[in-house]
Each structure stands twice: as C-alpha cells, then as structure tokens.
# Entry
Amino acid sequence: MANAFAGVDFYDVDGLLSEEERAVRDTVRAWVDEHLMPVIGDAYVEGKFPKQLIPGMAELGVLGANLPEEYGCAGLNNVAYGLIMQELERGDSGIRSFASVQGALVMYPIYAFGSEEQKQHWLPRLASGQDIGCFGLTEPDYGSNPGGMITTAKETKDGWLLNGAKMWITNGSQATVSIIWAKTGSVDDVKSIRGFIVPASTKGYTAKDQKGKLSLRASDTSEIVLQDCLVPKDAILPKSGGIKSPLMCLTQARYGIAWGGIGAAMACYDEALSYSKARIMFGKPIGQTQLQQSRLADMLTEITKAQLLTLQLGRLKDKGTMTPDQVSLAKRNNINMACEAAREARRLLGANGILAEYHSMRHMANLESVYTYEGTHDMHTLILGQAVTGLPAF
Amino acid sequence: MKIAVCIKRVPDMDLRFAIGAGGKALDSAGLKFDIADFDGYAVEAGLRLVEAHGSGEVVVVTVGPAAAQETLRKALGMGADRAIQLSADEVPFDGRAVATALATELKDGGYDLVLFGRMATDSANQTVGPMTAHLMGVPCVTAISKLDIAGGRGTAERQLEGASETVEFPLPAVVTIDEGLGRPRLPSLKGIMAAKKKPLEVKPAQLGAASLTVDSIALPPDRPPGRIIGEGADAVPELIRLLQTEAKVL
Amino acid sequence: MANMFAFAESRGGSLRKVALEAVSAARQATDATGGGEVHALLIGAPGIGAKAAALGRAGADLVIVVEHAGLARYSPEVFAATAADRLRSGGYRGAFFAASAEGRDLAPRVAVALGVSMASDLTGFAFEGDALVGKHPTHIGKIITTVRLTGSPALLTLRPGAVLVTDADRTARVEQGAPALDPAAARVVVTSVGGTGDAQLDLADAPVVVSGGRGLREAANFKLVEELAAAFGNAAVGATRAVTDDGWRDPSTQIGQTGRIVSPDLYVAVGISGAIQHLAGMRTSKTIVAINKDKDAPIFKLADYGIVGDLFEIVPRLTEEVRKARAGH
# Structure
C-alpha cells in the first residue's frame, strides 16, 4: 500500500482555506488514495473508464457538488468544488473529466437553463449517479468555433426533431442522457442555438467510442449521431438561448479544469520528489544533483503560483464577480504549467518514468488533451489578447 | 441505543517529526492533525451499531483545545449526531487525568455504550478507556475486533498474541476498539456541510490530577542506513555469513 | 529498600515469556533500589502453582498463588481486584505488568482501582527518588518519550522483549492467596479462548519474525514464508496490512501501525515494499533483512541486509541455507 498523498503546500495556502474546504479536500484526497490509485494504472493501460467507481463518487457527493442541496447536491462553495477537481485530477485527468462533464456540463445547464420540473427530475438522478450525462456541443468540423455548428432541431407537432453529429464527447458511450446543443433556426443563425435533454434511449440517437486514443485512456470519448431523433417538446432547456448558453457551461467546466491542472502537477511533483530522494546514481540520490533540483524548484514554484491565483479565482467566483477572461487566464496558465511539470517529472524518473506503475507519463499524456479541450491553449491566448486590447484576433 | 465515542485529535503520523524548542513536545511547524486511527474505527463502530439497531444517537466527545473541534466535526461529518468538547488547553499525558474528565461528563449521560479507540496513536498509553470505565462504575472490554450487541448484552472478540478470546458483558459498558468492525467511512461532502449545523457543546474539562508527565521527547536513534548486500539467490551465502558473524542472530 | 510486585501472565496453564520478563524487571528494580523482595502474583486454575518455581528462577522471592476453578481463563475484573488488593496491602514501590494484550487490559484497571496513574509500554525504566522514569515509544515508534511517574506504587507495563529474562538459582516461597472477587460475580467473562492456536510461536515472543507482503503475489505462496520460518525454528510469521486486508492471512498477524508492533532479534521482510504503516510495526527490530525485486523499495532504506531480486528464487535458497546453518548448531 502506497503512502497517502500529503499534498504540496509551500506557502501555507491551507491557511487560506476554511476548515470545511480543507475537510472536503481531505475527504476526496483520501477517496482517491483508497479507491482510484489502486486501479488507475491498469484502467489506463486497458483503455477503460473505471466505472465501478461511479457509485462511490456519487455517495461521496462529488457530482455537481456546488449545486444546491434541494436537488440532492452537496451545496458547496466554488473553492471547495475546485479542490474536488484538483484532487480528482491528482488521480487522473480522465476521472476529473468525468466529474467535470457530469457536474459542469450536464447538471449545471439543467440547473441554469432548465425548468423546475427538469431540475427536480434530473438533478437528483445525476447527483446520485443513477444517470450519467454527456455534453454534445463540439462537432467534427466545429471545435474552437462551436457557433458554426450544423446540428439542427426542427419543431414538429410531436416534438423536436434533431439531426446532426457530435464528436469528442466525454462520457458519450456510457451516458444515459445527453445535453445536445442544436440550432432551431437556419444554420447561420447563432442566436437560435438551444439546449435539449436527450435520453440515450431515444430512437435515432447512437454513440460509439472513438478508438486509438493515446491520451485520457481511462475516459470514454465518443462520437454521437442524431438521425431523425425525436424528443418531446419539453426536452428543450427553456432558458437556454444562443451560443452564450453553452459557453457559460464551458466557463464552469474550465474553472474546474484550472484546479485540476494543479492536482496533476502536484501528483507529478510529489512523485518526482520522492523518486529523486530514493534513486541512487553515482553513489548519491539524484535529488542531490543540481539539474534535478532545478527541475524540482521550477515545479514547486509554478505549482505554488497556480495555487494562489486559482484560489483567488475561486474567491471571485464565490463573490459572483469572476469573469470568463479570468477563467481563461487560469486554465491557460495551469494546464500549461501542469504539462511542463509532468514532462519534467517524467524525465527526472528516467527509464522508470515511461512505466504505467509511475504516474507522471500518464499525466503527461492526459494533459495534452486537457491542453487542447475546453478552449485550446491558443484560443485562451486570443481571448486574453482580446480582453486587454479590445481587438479580436480570431 | 445511545452511544458515546471518545476521540482524540493527534498529529498525522505520516509526516516527519521534529522536536520542539522545549524538548517536551513536537515542533508544531508543518504538523497536520486528524482523528487518531483507532478512534476512527470507534466512530465507525458506533455508527454501525446505531444503524443496525435502527434508532439511537452517537455522541462524540473529546478532551482538548478549540482546535479539537475540527476533529469533532469530522466525526459529525461521518454521521455522528452531536459533539461535546471538554475544553482543556492541553491534553494531559496522564490517562487517569483524562479519564476523570470523561467519566465526570459521561457518568450520568444514560449511555448504553461508551466507545474508545484502543489507544491514541500519539501518547500510546492505552489506559483512558478502562480507567474511564472504572470511574463510571461500568464493565469494560478492551481492544476488541468484533462486537455484537443484543438484549442488553455484548459479545466481543479480542485478539491476543497468537489467539483470540470471546468476552461477554452486560450493558452499559465501555468498549475499546481495535480494527475489525469496519474501516472508518469518509465524511461525505453533504456530511461535511451538515456537520456545521449539528450541535457542538463546549464545557470545561474536569481533569484529574496528573502524576504521569513527559520529561522529554526524542527522535529514536538513527538506524545505520540500509545496505543492499547483493542481487538474486547468489547473495544468500553472504547473507548467512553476515547473520552469523556480524548480526549474530543465526 | 523496596519491595516490587510483578504480575505473572499465563495462558492455558503455562507461563508466558512476558511473565518471566516482568519478574526479571522487578528483580532488577529491587536490586537497583537497595534490595528488597520481588513478589509475583500468579493466578489460574488449580495446578497453576506448579509454575511458581520458574518465577523464582527469574527473580521472585515470593509467589502468591491464586488458584480457582473459575480462573482457568483471564477474568479481568477478578484479576484486577486481586492484584489491587495485594498492592494495597503490600506497600510495594513498583508493580510490573507486561504490555501484552492481557497486561494492557489489566494494568489500567488495577491502577485506577488504587487511585494511581501508570506508565505504559516501557522499553527501559529506572527509579529515581520518588519517581519512576521510563522510555516509552510513542507516535507509532517515531518518538521516544521519557515519562516520569510519581506516586506509589508505580504501575507500569513493559514492552515484550524489553528486558532479558534472568535465570538464577533461587527458590521462591509460595503463599496461597484467594481471589478478591468471586469469579462467578464478574460482569465481564471470557467465555472461550481459541483461534490461531497456542502451538505456534507468537509474534511478540518470537526471536525471529518472517513476514510476507504483496510481492508474494498470491495467498498460496505464503508457504515460502512459512517454510523459511520453520527453518529458523524460532520464528513466527507476520504479514502486511495489504495482505491481511486481502484475506491472505489472519488479521491478528498484521504487523504495522494498526496491527502488531514487534521488535524481534531478526526481522525478515519478504516481498514487502515498506509502507510507513508497516515500518511502524517493525522498525525497532534489532536486525532487518529485506528481500524485494524493486531496489528502490523503502524497506531497503531500513534493512541492515537487503537482497534485490526474485523472491521466488531467493527465499527457497535462503530456507535451505538457514536449515543447514541451524543443523550445525
């Protein structure tokens, strides 16, 4: 049995957290040690999402944890929610992705744009893991430009008729319900984008795994096809409207991803640090060499900076003043930082670093996806560029 | 069924310890605290017994400073119903001093069972449970690994060295818990939120006089660094030689 | 000059090694404090008195034998009342119990009945003026606490193996005593003793402990560990928590922070990586041998003698060599 993860806290950032935020973090950290760490290596190599963990995650309350208790959720603040994402991603980005999608991309839109009946029906089922959700926005030809989507929803006397295809859909093949974004008007009418709750059992809805992934291997990524898929009139999210709605969801998810990056980086740093003290080369621990100390010092510095900036982001979100641009900065910084930390940790581990028994290379490969999804690093660069100059360069 | 579980806040044992300036306590820098290992098992046992019984109350009790409230709230987050902090700036090292405070609080509380972890992982005295029982005037069974409660009586199993014994006793009683009733559950996130709203009563601890005190603490002498004497089965003869001539244990 | 009291632990009509250790420690304490007598209390079913001679050789001047048909097994309340009774009347300076499962149950009951405090699990002790000063491993063995106990009698439990058993040509007087509480009136009753068997050498008593971990891959392979222990002839078999959690071995054999704490002369770790949890249970062993395939395993930082490699090749060879070495004795 490996030792419990003790975290990385060089600046007493713990002292900035409330007792309850620490308690939430510690409980998820212990859950990850106990339940996720023993199985993640094999799950990754086998390319399987460890779905046996879903009931435990649900029981713990990590799904939609920042949504209100009246819908069966934990009602946590956004810092505590962020810490959950950090701890899950300390285990694996794929598991954090699962929780992000369920919470921020499925439960959140139902909470924010749904009718009271939809909330009452779906949120407790999703919080308890009875239903698994996915988020259908990205299309084969519309990734960074989701407004260009060509999936349509036509209103008929029997309900909404959906047609189109979605790609890179996390949780897609195991989802029992999907939030599908489609245009109710013509394909160039971005304002006509609306969200629909589509049960996977609906006729004309199919999902299949995307094979051959070399990243996020312990996560389902799927392609969804909607062919004359008829859903009832009340399947529409009544308060959704325009591209702004799915983008609001992405802001929620990106917020969690920013925290997640810290988790992955801490895992890599922790592994690199303990390896550097144990691994003897030329008669001394490799941690006693300047090159490896430089790696460790860089990792520690970047992690500490990210911890502080992300905590402040969380405080702003809890205050209600957080802007999407601020989320872009954190997602961009933290995931880039985590990518670097993972790569340096993997290198420090030498040949052992390529084995699934160690974690850094798994994080390194995962983080390439995280770097790319939910707004690529480059897109966030342009968002920040636009934010400070007022000039869009898309 | 009404159950009290007495718990202690102790330093996280996975961390590296340093000796504090006075030489009598750990250097507090970098210490993290949590519920003592066996006390977590005791909370779990209390929750399971009440769940199995269908009704009842689990009250967690600690002796300690305000910081120990965090440990109480952890137990509340696991599912305990309410908490009592017997306030003391420091927890005496003397088990009898602590037992006096606990017995004073628990004696007339109408508890069917008072549970303890078999020992606190820091002071490792393993005396508070049986001493509290004596001061309360109730039977006591220590270090149990199985427990059944039925019809106002308990049946417990204790691990001995190389054997185990079965013990029967009437309630009310004090029982100290080794592992065995089940690993402590994690506080759920809803539980953590609910814990804030559960009652936590603070009273001064009526500590007994302490005649066992700490003179000083020290880190154990370093073992010589480990030494790998060889690889594979070919290293066995060398090991035998060292065990015979150097360690003199063969 | 002071008299000392020692509780002589027995099981199934036989003395346990820790009984001789308690008496030996009491002897040392008596001799160090200017002489006096060591009185040992031996409680059991009729016939237990036959064991008094062994207590004499370990250093007892007087053995108080309490025989009762209702006391074939440990009876916490009767034993505590009887010991407290004797201590109350005897004017003892110190009272020695073993830090065994029974001693740790009994001693606090006796102390609180007498209205005194006690020191636990000492690895060393000395009487200094009106105080007993002792060494007590705390914080899962990561700290050695020096404790000071005032008041008389000074009750303490001694960690098994902390003192060497003395063997002198001494004949103890025997006094017949009676239980201070009718065994039939006890509220807490031990109804049976069983389980992993008395025939096996116990982890606390064994000079050699051979333990196995996950590296053995499956429960059946534990026979390699058992065979090695058998080759030593004086070894008990332990296990890691991972292994007992998986049900490969009985939980009572788990060595570690949440299991048994041992400090044998020789500890052999087979296929054990050395999680801190486990190290807490064996780090005070006098000599540690580790066999593991991963040369970076933490156990090698602690091991006096480490062998890196396939335990399935190394252990059978070691068993054979130990057997040969033992035969030469």
Summary: Helices of chain B lie at 37-53, 69-78, 95-106, 128-136, 189-195, 236-245. The radius of gyration of chain B is 21 Å. The first helix of chain B runs from residue 37 to 53.
